[in-house]
Amino acid sequence: DGDQIHTTINWEHYDHARSAETVEFTTTSVPEVYWRVVVAVRDRELAHPGRPRALTKLDMPFQHVRKLHKSRATDRPIFVDAQGGVEYEVTADRKRKLGDIGNAVSQLGLCPRLVHIAEANGSPLVDGKRPMCSCRARPKPPPEPAAPPGMSAKGSRGSVVDKADKADGGRGGRNNRKGAAADKGGAGGAGGAGSGA
């Protein structure tokens, strides 16, 4: 189409192997944008054995990439895959066809913020900024439960009682000592009465 196209691949939104890496490039070629995004996503997907093998064939689920047949002439741009040297042609020849990238990312279950493609004036062709992030939240430690009345956060009722005794200045301890002294005095008086008898 002749106008510049800005592409950003934000690997922080590749949920299976997040990294701070961001790939950005600008070109006027729609097929080049399509090819570079397809190969980048394909390579990341195939690097993880646990991922579905939907990309074992490069043209799935990206519908505008197909293997070049030597027996058939083509006037479309041809790209050589670095993995195996296979030649592919890209049939995406209009900006609107770049929207297929967003659909493919969705089919693969990837975060819609992974890829953002925009025209020179900022109009998104594949919007990777406004959609809600679908990455799994990083695990956070569970919050400490609130202590119910009369219970400490650790669930130790005894420790709360001890703290309450300490908070009242140990009056419980003094009361106990007074009680013990009274008992002792009573015992002494009883002993004296016995002696007098």
Structural class: alpha+beta
Q: Which sheet architecture does the biggest sheet show?
A: 4 strands, antiparallel
Mean pLDDT: 76
Q: Tally the helices.
A: 4
Q: Major sheet: order of its strands?
A: 2-1-6-7
Secondary-structure element pattern, one letter each = EEHEEEHEEHH
Share of helix among residues? 25-40%
Oligomer: single chain
User: What is the beta-strand fraction?
Assistant: 15-25%
| Anisotropy-based shape | elongated
Task: Give the terminus-to-terminus CA distance.
Answer: 125 Å
Low-confidence stretches at least 5 residues in length (pLDDT < 50)? 155-167, 187-197
What Rg is obtained from the alpha carbons, in whole angstroms?
A: 37 Å
Query: Count the strands?
Result: 7
